[in-house]
Amino acid sequence: MMEFEQRVWQRCQEIPKGMVSTYKEIARSLDTKAYRAVGNSLRKNPYSYLNSSKVPCHRVIKSDGSLGGFHGSKDDPRKAELLRKEGLVIKDNRIKNFKKFLYTF
DNA sequence: GGAGTGACTTTTT
DNA sequence: GAAAAAGCCACTC
User: Fold this and answer.
1) What does pTM read for this prediction?
2) Is the C-beta atom of A93 closer than 7 angstroms to strand B?
């Protein structure tokens, strides 16, 4: 069932710079409710944003605007910095006005 | 084939 | 607004 994961990763790449998306939106765009499976796939994705720029998983956040716990550490500023560089405003591990930057498929 | 896991979401306390 | 519970799907052991 790799297709599902690939589709997820593809959505990540589809997110334009300076925008973010949520697990739920991705799942919805795939016509499924597997928001958990989305996270599960991203967790194991072979193109982790640390190793490759192919899948900017850092642009995928939770539906309430928080970044979630990527890469295993919640205190890692790299992701927040990355997003901040793309024009997003991060406050206490939350995206400010993230709805404005929310990219829906 | 069943039980456990996870970078989740939504509703209810 | 924070915390807990229930519900969801794919993947791994």
Assistant:
1) 0.86
2) no
